[in-house]
Write a structure and sequence with these properties.
CATH architecture of the largest domain: 3-Layer(aba) Sandwich
Mean pLDDT: 87
Shape: rod-shaped
Number of domains: 2
Radius of gyration: 38 Å
Structural class: alpha/beta
Distance between the termini: 68 Å
Largest sheet: 5 strands, parallel
Helix content: 40-55%
CATH topology of the largest domain: Rossmann fold
């Protein structure tokens, strides 16, 4: 994938026009994005926050020093030195290029003020503490920038910028989310399978075994009587299993369990006991959840949902889906089965 790195070029401006052009040309040849003084035609304290944000966004920082200290802020510190100090403070990878012989520069490109010369000398000494090289001409500077940046990229790899054509689309992000969900699902199945290996499933209540539930049911003549309703584990699975094929909430699951027990109410009592009267105790609901997880039929949901969604979700495991099909699938009548062909 094509990646471009953004490089901040820091220097004085008017005295280093050709040198900056050589540096920018070298960066463009390396497929880098130059950034620097050209973006700020009037460098002042009001623009300092913008300059810092640009340095933050850059992958690398290049400093070029010749014979001028540059324009200063109200404290007498040049904006070039401020940029350098800021790049150091945020641990930005830095390359510094100092003119090898400032005394040989044209008079117009050298500071005359003694205080500025002193500040420039101190700045040069500070810059020498970083990865530093010396240059004598624009061409020499361009070549050294090119070679040094290649090495810096190897020592300090950076994420850089990716062209829009390679950016992740909504479809790609959705696919990534689905793949992550699938990985989580497989990891969970592995955990469940391992736990299942440690349990003797044959010893667990299952299949046609009954799950009794004692309820107070209203009687036709008035009053209520303690009645035990019994539904098999397979019947419970057949009620809530189809809703779990695409995951369902815990509330939906238990609603289906209630419906199964409502249908188990004797016909003569059903009109006196509506579905809303079937109350499942919390310990009974926990019993249902634990048993079906122990059997390896259900597992917590793994699909991504809104942050505000606090519901608990359940899904069928592959083992649960297979068992549901054996319980719920319609079978052909015995008479409809074609007889076997007679042997010849």
């Amino acid at each position: 994938m094509e990646t471009k790195h953004q490089v901040f070029v820091s220097s004085t401006f008017k005295d280093l026009v050709q040198e900056r052009q050589a540096v920018i040309h070298a960066l463009l040849e390396l497929d880098c994005i130059p950034a620097g003084m050209e973006l700020f035609p009037a460098a002042d304290e009001d623009a300092w926050s913008l300059i810092r944000s640009v340095i933050d966004d850059c992958d690398y920082y290049i400093l070029v020093i010749a014979g001028k200290y540059g324009s200063t802020n109200s404290s007498g510190v040049s904006f070039t030195e401020m940029e350098f100090d800021y790049a150091v403070s945020i641990n930005k990878p830095i390359l510094a290029f100092l003119h090898e012989n400032p005394d040989a520069l044209p008079a117009g490109n050298v500071d005359k003020s003694e205080p500025l010369l002193q500040r420039l000398d101190a700045f040069r000494e500070k810059a020498k503490s970083r990865h530093c090289k010396f240059w004598t001409s624009p061409e020499d500077l361009g070549g050294k920038v090119s070679r040094s940046l290649v090495q810096l990229r190897k020592r300090h790899p950076s994420a850089g910028w990716i062209p829009g054509k390679y950016a992740a689309s909504d479809a790609m992000l959705r696919e990534l989310q689905e793949l992550r969900a699938r990985v989580a699902e497989l990891e969970l199945e592995a955990v469940v399978a391992k736990a299942k290996d440690d349990v003797d499933l044959s010893a667990l209540s299952q299949g046609a075994d009954k799950v009794p539930l004692a309820l107070n049911l209203r009687q036709p003549g008035g009053g209520a009587k303690r009645t035990v309703l019994s539904v098999s584990w397979d019947t419970l699975l057949s009620y809530f299993g189809p809703s779990m094929l695409t995951e369902c909430t815990d509330e939906e699951m238990m609603g289906r369990v209630r419906l199964a027990y409502f249908h188990a109410v004797p016909d003569e009592l059903r009109e006196h006991n509506p579905l809303t009267g079937i109350i499942l105790p919390s310990v009974f609901e926990d019993k249902i959840r634990v048993q079906f997880q122990a059997l390896g039929f259900v597992a917590p949901g793994v699909k991504r949902r809104a942050v505000a969604d606090n519901s608990r979700y359940w899904r069928l495991t592959p083992r649960g889906e297979k068992h549901l099909l054996s319980v719920r699938a319609e079978r052909r009548p015995t008479a409809a089965v074609a007889p076997a062909a007679p042997a010849e």
